[in-house]
Specification:
The complex is a heterotrimer. Chain A has 11 helices and 11 strands. Chain A starts with a helix and ends in a 6-residue tail after the last helix. In chain B, the strands form 2 sheets. Chain B has a two-stranded antiparallel sheet with strand order 1-4. Chain B has a two-stranded antiparallel ribbon with strand order 2-3. In chain B, helix 4 packs antiparallel against helix 5. Classes of the chains: A alpha/beta, B mainly alpha, C mainly alpha.
């Protein structure tokens, strides 16, 4: 195997060049836990990381992706919680680290893990079918007031559902929320006319948007996205107005966060924080965030914890109003 | 499983007849149905405005399971012909346990010794104890098997399987 | 013909030494992961995905799709020889394939399975080549009611099969459905039947259950008889392949019907998994030798394999044309496309013509190369049965454990598999049929999700299932099948003695 030869060679050069002897360095394959199904957004991110690390030789040990998507990702979270703090395993987490424990009795708290970095923020966009008469947010909400519309999304009592309920609270309309297994399914169901709208991430709808099958109404952020290259015939991601400017005063984003096992050593933390700083500089990462229209971000240490705490608090309030909190 | 032993049927010893096993299985299924029905009733088995609630289908199924297994209990109790039908002979049951017990120990072993060492041991035990095959060929086969699957899974495919102290000692 | 021209260009891209050797390596690797239970399909492709990171997209997709074909072929091997289905689509192959192997016809069964697979995927590739755009839009017509209707139809084709006591069929079906319901409920996000066990959160994985139910229980049943496999005295020659081939044209109707079912369910997102079951049942209903099904009937191997391969191939169509994966493996391939910077969707055919037609051409070539390779290995695989039981049995047990573990990297799953092995042993001996139980495990929770999604959308109105022409038609066909027996006998009694037929209650 030539790849193996390359790897051995890489190891030899890197091992010789290693400056401090005390620093932590993985000595066996590093496992990425993906708390989602094959082919989903988290899985794609894991493949990107695997590719970026491998192509740029950022680490001597190989990277292995493990999918643990059972129970809306709770399986992956539980697995990470019980992992040994040996620095050979990290998880790509997102908002479900707080929504799951809040809505079900899954015994998990993200404080049990060691936070490393938030490597990107994912946006949410309000979409409807391109053939629909409603060409603006106001028009869609007016239609929804007249007759109930169907809103598609991924899973129940999770981001899409919470955001839908957020929209309901702000605009005093009611949607029939239909939970699907994946964002891809939600996208197709919208194109097929089985639902009237969805709040998919850009990456989940980009294919059908480019094909002119769906319409992007607004993005749930405080400013438009920063990508100005044309994605469809005449629009770029940056051309999508914010929901606030369209009279729907909602901000909602989702962090893509990396954690390692709880009780990890400071050396292990330093290694991974450095690793992700290097990853954020690679071409693979930059291509990835722009293809998926993610907002690049790199929050580590205290910044990250503050962000997560604020975001968790926000979710608790939103879910409380929506009645999604676990009834004790 | 029923451990009821009875006098020799004709020439062979019978470990269990069909009827008691059938009765026990049906009774277990009936109990399971009851427990599941209760649990699903707890989370809501009704029909809300937006369709069935989470417990609706499982509750219905649990009730169907109770009815069907109660019917099974009833027919098995009435069916006299099955009383003489052999479920398993002592000799066969012994063979089944000769496989089942090492297999259970093998799964226990995975946790402590890792999958590779545990499989090698399983193959060794099967070959020497059940197959009465030579010691050398048994050792070679079991170690060879473990080595090949280790090379295939850990090194080529990078599937991480449970490993124990031996692999850790070898640096994996 | 524009399609034909593009296809020729595709072939031109492939017919280089590099690409062809890549195909052979891919197929061999695919057969290997297909043979190892738990690694086939999505897992296998995901594991081998990193190997392609350095390649150009066309080489990479050719390599990966060849792994996919190899895995599809390989899945049949363990199903037939050891009764261990490595994938959902090979479960139905065990129903008749393993009995054939026990009767000493392992080589015939393998040849039939491989040839049927080839035929099925050939039909599906032809479909993709010439009808891609129009078929792709068909997939969009499927919303929750239509999905439910398809699952309902699959269940209906099953009713009335088997001579086991009725209450045992119902118990098997219900137990399968209940197991499928364990864990988190998609529609409400609530936990069901986990009784506080963290390990049960993710539910009982279908593959784990099936590896136990079929693989482990088979070993227990075999050892109960004697310390050897049945049919090990079978003599295998390459001429068996010819003999089997000569017998195949007789089953042209089964092959065509199964291909049609496979293509239809393959382009239906999420339907591929039902294809082999439905095809098996339909073949049984239409067969003249209905009673010999389950005892080693060659049609019982041909039907599910043709449909599985046709569905597996056709499932790539919605992925390429719409960006929605039709199956788990297609989802991983989709992830691969994104790694190489290709955006699947309606524009892929326009923007990356070379890539798409290279892939389609590789479907033809890959399957042909695959067929040659697997047929050449038939004697080898069949010879595995001659290895003494005391050597091969522990290896099978080890592979079952690896398979069960690898599905979700969970040791708990290995215990679940073992429990299912014992349940399978007792159930088989007591005449509880395992086929409806596995069908229920595979499709039960999907059917429930589809039904409840329908209800959310219709505000609890059940009649919506019959309102759209597509779902209404499928539902009616299902109901017709369900009540076919009673209706037919009722009609004959009406004209005969005039006594009303008692209709059995439909099974949920």
């Amino acid at each position: 195997m030539t790849t193996k030869a390359v790897r051995t060679l890489a190891c030899v050069t890197l091992c010789l060049a290693a400056p401090q002897a005390m620093a932590f360095e993985p000595s066996k394959p590093v496992e990425i836990v993906v708390p989602a199904g094959a082919g989903g957004a988290s899985d794609q991110m894991a493949r990107m990381l695997q590719n970026a690390v491998q192509q740029n030789k950022l680490m001597t040990s190989p990277v292995v992706v493990t999918l643990k998507g059972g129970a809306s990702g709770a399986e992956g979270l539980i697995d990470m919680k019980s992992a040994q703090p040996d620095g050979h395993k990290f998880i790509i987490a997102q908002s479900s680290i707080y929504t799951l424990p809040l809505s079900t009795n899954v015994p998990f708290d993200w404080r049990d893990l060691t936070p490393i970095a938030i490597i990107a923020l994912d946006q949410f966009v309000l979409w409807n079918n391109a053939t629909s008469e409603d060409k603006s947010v106001a028009s869609l909400l007016a239609t929804a007031k007249a007759k109930p519309l169907k809103m598609g999304g991924t899973g129940s009592k999770r981001e899409d559902h919470i955001l839908t309920s957020f929209v309901e609270q702000k605009s005093a309309v009611k949607f029939a929320y239909i939970p699907y297994k994946s964002g891809g399914e939600a996208a197709t169901q919208l194109v097929g006319g089985h639902t009237d709208a969805n709040v998919n991430n850009p990456s989940e709808n980009v294919a059908v948007w480019r094909a002119g099958q769906v319409r992007a109404l607004c993005v749930f952020d405080n400013k438009p996205m920063a990508y100005n290259t044309k994605v469809t015939q005449d629009l770029s991601w940056g051309d999508i107005p914010t929901c606030r400017s369209q009279g729907l005063d909602i901000e909602y984003t989702m962090p893509r966060a990396i954690f390692i096992a709880g009780k990890s050593t400071p050396e292990q933390v330093k290694f991974y924080v450095d690793l992700f700083k290097k990853v954020a500089e690679t071409k693979e990462y930059k291509d990835y965030v722009s293809n998926q229209a993610l907002t690049p971000a790199l929050l580590t240490g205290k910044d990250m914890v503050t962000f997560l705490e604020t975001d968790e608090k926000k979710h608790r309030e939103l879910m409380d109003t929506a009645g999604f909190l676990l009834k004790k | 499983m029923s451990e009821e032993t009875s006098e020799a049927d004709s020439a062979r010893k019978v470990a269990a007849y069909v009827r008691p096993v059938d009765l026990v299985t049906s009774a277990l299924l009936l109990t399971a149905g009851f427990v599941l029905a209760l649990d699903n009733w707890r989370i809501g088995a009704g029909w809300a405005s937006d369709g069935p609630r989470p417990g609706f289908f499982p509750f219905g199924l649990a009730v169907i399971l109770m009815v069907a297994s109660a019917w099974g209990l009833f027919t098995a109790a009435r069916d006299r012909s099955a009383a003489r039908e052999v479920f398993v002979e002592t000799e066969s049951l012994k063979r089944v346990f000769q496989v089942l017990v090492p297999t259970i120990l093998f799964v226990v072993g995975i946790k402590y010794a890792g999958l590779y060492a545990s499989s090698a041991l399983l193959i060794f035990v099967f070959m020497t104890w059940l197959g009465r095959l030579g010691l050398v060929s048994s050792v070679l086969t079991s170690l060879g098997f473990a080595a090949v699957i280790f090379w295939m899974f850990e090194i080529q495919f990078r599937v991480l399987l449970p490993k124990g102290p031996i692999e850790a000692w070898l640096g994996f | 013909m524009e399609a034909l021209q593009s296809l020729m260009q595709g072939f031109a891209i492939l017919l280089t030494f590099d690409k062809l050797s890549l195909m052979v390596i891919g197929i061999l690797a695919g057969i290997l992961v297909g043979v190892l239970p738990g690694l086939g399909g999505p897992n296998g492709v995901a594991i081998l995905l990193p190997l392609t990171f350095g390649m150009d997209p066309t080489s990479a997709i050719v390599f990966l799709s060849c792994i996919y074909w190899g895995a599809l072929f390989g899945g049949a091997i363990t199903s037939i020889l050891f009764n261990i289905p490595g994938e959902a689509w090979s479960v139905a192959t065990t129903f008749d394939g393993h009995p054939m192997a026990q009767n000493g016809q392992a080589a015939e069964a393998l040849t039939a399975a491989f040839t049927a697979s080839f035929f099925g995927s050939l039909v599906a590739v032809l479909l993709i080549t010439f009808l891609a755009p129009s078929i792709a839009s068909f997939a969009l017509k499927f919303g929750p009611p239509e999905f439910f209707a398809v699952y309902f139809l699959t269940f209906c084709t099953f009713v009335g099969l088997g001579k086991e006591p009725k209450h045992k069929v119902i118990v098997a079906l219900v137990v399968g459905l209940l197991f499928g319901g364990i864990g988190m409920d998609t529609v409400s996000g609530e936990l069901r039947m986990t009784f506080g066990f963290v390990e049960l959160l993710k539910g009982v994985d279908f593959l784990v259950a099936v590896i136990g139910l079929f693989g482990i229980s088979e070993i227990l049943l075999t050892i109960e008889q004697k310390l050897a496999f049945h049919g090990k005295e079978a003599r295998i020659r390459l001429s068996t392949v010819w003999r089997t081939w000569l017998s195949l044209p007789r089953y042209w109707a089964t092959l065509l019907r199964s291909s049609a079912i496979g293509c239809w369910l393959g382009v239906t997102p999420g339907g591929a998994i039902a294809a082999s079951f439905m095809s098996y049942n339909v073949a049984k209903q239409f067969s003249k030798n209905k009673d010999s099904f389950g005892k080693g009937q060659i049609e019982g191997v041909l039907a599910p394999e043709t449909a599985a391969h046709a569905a597996g191939t056709a499932a790539l169509l919605p992925m390429l044309a719409l960006g929605i994966p039709g199956s788990g493996t297609a989802a991983v391939l989709l992830g691969g496309l994104l790694v190489w910077g290709l955006q699947p969707g309606p524009l892929l055919f326009v923007e990356h013509k070379e890539f798409v037609w290279g892939l389609i051409a590789s479907m033809y070539l890959g399957n042909l190369v695959g067929l040659v390779i697997v047929l050449a290995t038939v004697p080898l695989f069949a010879a595995v049965l001659r290895v003494p039981f005391t050597i091969i049995a522990p290896m099978i047990i080890a592979f079952c454990a690896i398979g069960a573990y690898a599905v979700e990297n969970s040791l708990f799953d290995v215990w679940v598999m073992l429990v299912f092995g014992i349940v399978g042993y007792v159930f088989k001996k007591l005449d509880y049929p395992l086929a409806p139980m596995t069908l229920a495990l595979v499709l039960g929770d999907r059917a429930e999700d589809a039904f409840r999604q329908t209800m959310v959308g219709s505000y609890g109105d059940v009649t919506v299932l019959f309102k759209s022409p597509l779902s209404g038609t499928i539902m009616l066909i299902g109901l017709l099948l369900l009540f076919w027996g009673p209706l037919a006998s009722g009609a004959s009694r009406l004209f005969g003695r005039g006594r009303p037929a008692s209709e059995p209650r439909p099974v949920e």
